Amino acid sequence: MTDATAEPTHRPSPREQKEMAEQDGPMLAADGTPLKRSLNRALRAQKLRALMLIAPLLIFILVTFVAPIADMLFRSVENQIVSETVPRTIVALDETWSDHDAVPGEAVFAAMAYDLKEAAERREHTRLGSRLNYETTGISSLFRRSGRGVDDVGEIYADQFIELDEAWEEPATWTALMADPEWIADAEGTEDEDIPRFRLADGIADILPETASAYAGFARVIIDQDGDNPLEEEPWNTIYLALYRDLSAGADVSAYDGPQARRLSAAAEAVPGFESEPVSVMFEDIDEDWLDPQVWGTIDAFSSRYTAGYYLAAIDMQLTPEGIEPQPEEQRIYLLLFKRTLFMSGVIMGMCVLLGYPVAFLLANLPLRTSNLLMILVLLPFWTSLLVRTSAWKVLLQQEGVINDTLVWIGLVADNDRLQLINNQLGTIIAMTHILLPFMILPLYSVMQTIPPSYVRAAKSLGANDWTAFWRVYFPQSVPGIGAGCILVFILSIGYYITPELVGGRTGTFISNRIAFHISESLNWGLAAALGAILLGAVLILYWAYDRIVGIDNVKLG
Amino acid sequence: MKLKTAMLLTTATVLAAPGSMAQEMADSMTLVSWGGAYQASQIAAYSDPYQEMNPDVEIVWDESSAEAVARLRAMDEAGNLTWDLVDVVAADAIRLCDEGLAMEVDHDEILAPAPDGTPASEDFGDLIVSDCFIPQIVYSTTFGYRTDVAEWNGAEPSSVCDVFDTETFPGQRSLERRPIGNLEWALICDGVAYEDVYDMLETEEGVDRAFAMLDTIKDQTIWWTAGADTPQLLADGEVVIGSTYNGRLFSLIEEQDQPVAMLWDWQMFDLDGWIIPTGLPEDRLNRVLDFVNFATDTQRLADQAAYISYGPARDSSAPLVGQHAELGIDMAPHMPTDPANSVNTFVFNYEWWADYRDDLDARFQAWLAQ
Amino acid sequence: MTSGDAAAFVAFDRVQKSYDGETLVVKDLNLAIGKGEFLTMLGPSGSGKTTCLMMLAGFETATHGEITLDGRPINNIPPHKRGIGMVFQNYALFPHMTVAENLAFPLEVRGIGKSDREEKIKRALDMVQMGDFAGRRPAQLSGGQQQRIALARALVFEPELVLMDEPLGALDKQLRETLQFEITKLAHDLGITTVYVTHDQTEALTMSDRVAVFDDGVIQQLDAPDILYEEPKNSFVAQFIGENNTLHGTVERIDGDAAVVRLDDGSQIDTIPVNVDKPGQRTLVSIRPERVEFNKDRLAPDAHTIKAEVKEFIYMGDIYRTRVSVAGNDDFIIKTRNAPDQRRLKKGEILEIGWRPQDCRALDA
Q: Would B333 be classed as within a structural domain?
């Protein structure tokens, strides 16, 4: 500390200067331009240079830190897979399904047939199944089975159309009916890779809406996914289903005067005589679960592009077709784990303060040579691989381990009643305190080093005994170190997962272990992201609270 | 990579006769496996002979199978596929297939037929549990127990239900920290018939019964996550009985000579095999297909059993299983598929677990945490 | 002021101190400080003065010897029971407490009641003219203000002995002078015994009743400031205190309290022998610059004079400072008062300079 840290002369703060400037009108520089502007001009080059200097770091942080976090936050609400995979179904559910206790109508099943067929061709139906299985058990296999089964949906109509007129089997018939003539001209004779984007014929979507939609989907899949030419591909059975539904719904085929007008009117006339089967029955043939309203309810509930479902799941709630409900009691785990993580991180932090403070004090007050040696001991855990440490803890702490053996040998503990020191909360606390102790000691040490010994001397000369001098004078000045250490240790321990996984047993695991599980095993990245976002939020709130209570200025790393 | 193109390529490769150098093939590939003795057995049985035949091919081994599903998804999202062939358990293969991350293959086209001409799909039979999955081995999760526990007064566990019998067999147990296997065993030991186990687990009552059964040993159990845990715990005497993969127990008993014995009762069969990631460039795919065709033929699968006690996935390999490469003991009696060992077996019901896993896992973890 | 051994308020009796067991930092120190006395320990850094202070305060233990306070041996009394006020160079104000809290600290630990405390704090703050700053934190004060507070804190519990360890070392000159005056006045008004450590000889001279000049762990001279200045007992003191001209020579003859010294260029000068005792001895002759005379009228008729050539004339306002070359010493300084009749010397001028014999001290070489 030097003198003249703060001269009493009052220097106006920037804000005051600004106020003064506002009172008197803008201050002018020698050339008459406002002083502020010429100052800005002078500083601009400097700022630019500064920006260039930090640019690599800035870009690095953006790429490796900000972007992943933004991505995580996005994933935690993102739910586009449903609306992208089964778009027609969602619209149909929205428009026609009112009684959520009943199976939806034919329109929904038909829409699902078109969507599912397309998704199956794109190999996306199983992904949707996995996604929805997070919400309702059984949907995963329902979609997997239906991906193949949907091939047959509409076959009954395909057969009848072809029987009526074999031309309906010809790809050319369909493209002539559905496609824009210009597109046909473009696509004819083109290499498979260069087929232009499919375009519907003018007006066909008004006359045969479902057919147009289903066929356009078909053409897109054929072009994009398979790299083939729709001019040469037989349409799927679901397209015959669409045509049947359009025609039997009374499509105004007289309004159509395109290339296939005659064939279409013939078909329209014949359709009432077709043998028919409800689409729901076709789905029932695939899997009777399709008649379970809960399946449709789940699809409906998660139809929006963004969902709070992951966040709800992360706090032991669930989004059901009936609204937000708590999870069944036996499945609630996340709140418990959040609480446990915070509690145990707090305990670990407290242990680190208790154990680290005296060590840091000793380090700061010993002669340099001795303190360097001690510092090496403190840093030793840093240099030991986690695997070695874990093995060491196991050897030491397990029931047949060194500590228990010693206690039994001394007679403090009965042989058949050995202490459980690992594979539980205690194990996690012991191991993590060990790992994180340096993170407490180092900031404490560097803060303590800056506390001049004259403070304690002054206190003693003023009549304070050793304890009072320490508690009233030394300790308050080391608080910034404690603050820094606590923030470090707490935030690090909140996010730890390897150690709790290895030594935590069933009661000593953290929320991070579940996040890791959802990232690497269940692949429920949305839920993992939501859990991570909540954890991030918790840390930010704690940080804010700390700032309010202690003041972040009171944190010193040295 | 468009699926259909891939399939066409596949077909083309096979039509051009396996092993021929007609197509362009990459001269290096990255294989992903589990590390340890298992990967060593694959190197010895598959990749060393393959490299002998193709000396200019570089084979890189990665030990990331445990996180293969997540890594493949991440690679897919990043559009940077660095793996060529990945060894995964069947459940993961199904998941990767569902996610579109693993390539669907026609087993008869890409795999060699049995020496007697039986097509691959018949030779592998039911073990092809997914269109993306190319089976290699049958392994099982089963129990090992210490043979020197004084408190047992000479009794030895003979049934999986002895795991739940803390009266006769006191001491700590170790079980895997996941519902699969544990719930089935719990129900079997609660008196549910084998055929009814999964039906039972679909009901609330069945799940309750299973957890109630597990409750009886909850506090005396160490829950493991790595296959190496139980062998270590058994060797240390920290647990007296615990589940793990049969190959680990084989190595503990036969190679390390520990006082531990196998309990084959109601062993949980599982499968491990290859998947080819979706989206490989043509030359790399050709190389992988060439390798897979070689590495999964009847002889190669049988060879692997000389290094590790896992059963070859082909029926036609079983008669060719010989002796352990170093110990010189007959491997057949140590195979989970040996008739003496497979009196009572569970076959992992992949379809069922794919549906119920999310739910039961949440419940299992909640149960554990409390 | 008293300084008798029997009545000594603070006494060091044959005190030695070593940190490493090999060298002595303080060698056989004997010192008696009277009650109410303002004693300054002056010396270059490493001379042992601060160590002495710390031993007195109780932060260092004497390796040998005894320190008594008011007749009681205090070697084994912990610092907080000695009741000695102390002011540190870096003020050592507790940064997490306000000024009032800092002052309350010594009172609180003594269990003094709240109303008493407030009154004492107010009095102490008024004493250092800082009455309005009770609510401030040390960081909001200037160095001088902080030092006043530190002083007030050291005095607030009314100790009989106050130790000050270079308290003004970090302040600028003007502030230092003001505070020197204030501290001396306070100490005298309150009748407190003060032991003051400094390496600034001006400070020592202006403030103290007596000054102990330390060098190499030993008190070189212990005297009142005027005696110290005018009658240094050895060349270290002579050179350390004030400005000093030195000339090297050999003792020609000693005649009672007068001695003639032959300088190295052969010229002879009159001196008084301080620590030379026989002819032929090498000696260092010391003359204060303001005692050098070049106006022959003011010199004794029989005085030896010596030739000097003016090298440089410096106008310093209140004084003139002339650098001359004397007997091979080019840094010989003459200080003259800027008086109306005073002559300004010119560069190159040749002078005959001389001095009263009693102003010229022949010291150890």
A: no
A295 within a domain of the structure (yes/no) = no
Q: Quick one: pLDDT band at residue C329, thresholds 50, 70, 90?
A: confident
Measure A10 CA to nearest chain C CA, in Å: 11
Domain with B109 in it? 3-138+271-320
**Class at the top of the CATH hierarchy for domain C243-364:** mainly beta
Q: Which pLDDT band holds residue C4 (cuts at 50, 70, 90)?
A: very low
Give the burial string for A306-337 (b: 16+ CB within 10 Å, else e).
Answer: ebbbbbbbbbbbbbbbeeeeebeebbbbbeeb
Q: How far is A476 from chain C (nearest CA, A)?
A: 7
Q: Which one of B67, B211, B358 has the shortest CB-CB distance to A522?
A: B358
Please enumerate in sequence order all residues whose Cβ is within 8 A of that of A428, keeping only pairs 6 or more positions apart, or say none. Answer: A344, A499, A500, A503, A504, A508, A509, A510
The 10s digit of each residue's pLDDT in C70-123 is 989 999 999 999 999 999 988 899 999 999 999 999 999 999 999 999 999 999
Residues A126, B99: C-beta atoms closer than 8 Å: yes
Query: Touching C: which chains, 3+ CB pairs < 8 A?
Result: A
Interchain CB distance below 8 Å, B369 and A134: no
Q: What is the CATH number of the domain that holds B237?
A: 3.40.190.10
- Topology of domain C10-235 in CATH is Rossmann fold (3.40.50)
Question: Residues C172-210: pLDDT tens digits?
Answer: 888 888 899 999 999 999 999 999 999 988 899 999 999
Q: Say if strands B173-176 and C26-33 run parallel, antiparallel, or are unpaired.
A: unpaired
**In this structure, are A364 and A491 located in the same domain?**
yes
Rounded mean pLDDT of B183-188? 96
pLDDT for the residue numbered B328: 87
Q: Looking at the predicted structure, is the pLDDT value of residue A320 above 90?
A: no
Of A126, A399, A521, the CB nearest to B98: A126
Which pair of structure tokens corresponds to residue A347? 């305990």
Q: Same domain, yes or no, for B228 and B352?
A: yes
Nearest CB to A462: which of C78, C90, C105? C105
Note whether residue B332 is domain-resident.
no
Contacts with B358 from chain A: Cβ below 8 Å: 133-134, 137, 522, 524
As for the ipTM of the complex, it is 0.86
A317, β-bridge pairs:
A326
Residue B326 lies in a domain: no
Same domain, B74 and B145: no
Are A372 and A452 in a shared domain?
A: yes
| Chain A contact for B326 (CB, 8 A cutoff) | no
Q: Please list every residue in chain A whose beta carbon sits closer than 8 Å to the beta carbon of residue C105.
A: 459, 462, 464, 472-473
